[in-house]
Amino acid sequence: MKTKENSEEILSSLANEGFRITRLRKAIIGVFTGNGLPMSADELMEILRSGNTAFNKTTVYREISFLKERGVIQEIQFLHERVKRYELASLEHHHHLVCLRCNRVEDIVLENDLAEQERSILNSKGFKVTNHMLEFHGICRGCHS
User: Fold this and answer.
1) What is residue 135's three-state secondary structure?
2) DSSP code string of 82-122
3) What are 45-89's pLDDT values in tens digits?
4) Domains of the chain
């Protein structure tokens, strides 16, 4: 999935706004720009742990809130899960395929990105859609083979 920003651009933007660039903040932003798929806080911490990044669990949650408030990441909650997931807010518009067996999430960009449907909703209902989220639930290739 293509992002409009890379790690250095995000860090530079935060530094220009007067925010400190800690090792943990840099590592977390690196995970989000390198991964591209929505991940839970636990999945983020597992990746940080595997990269030998020292962290405190509470600090990771604070960083998630900080990055969310600054519009760097966005929160996603899939219908079948209780856990919140996060991904870069600067990713191109996309939707998700969610496996009901292994919980694997895959991004998908639809050819006709529902713009026509949004126009139809505006015309027929007078409702201006500002954002939408679409999830496809099923069984992934790895689970049904």
Assistant:
1) strand
2) SS-EEEETTBPS-EEEEETTT--EEEE--SS-SHHHHHHHH
3) 999 999 999 999 999 999 999 999 999 998 988 777 788 989 888
4) 1-91 (1.10.10.10), 93-145 (3.30.1490.190)
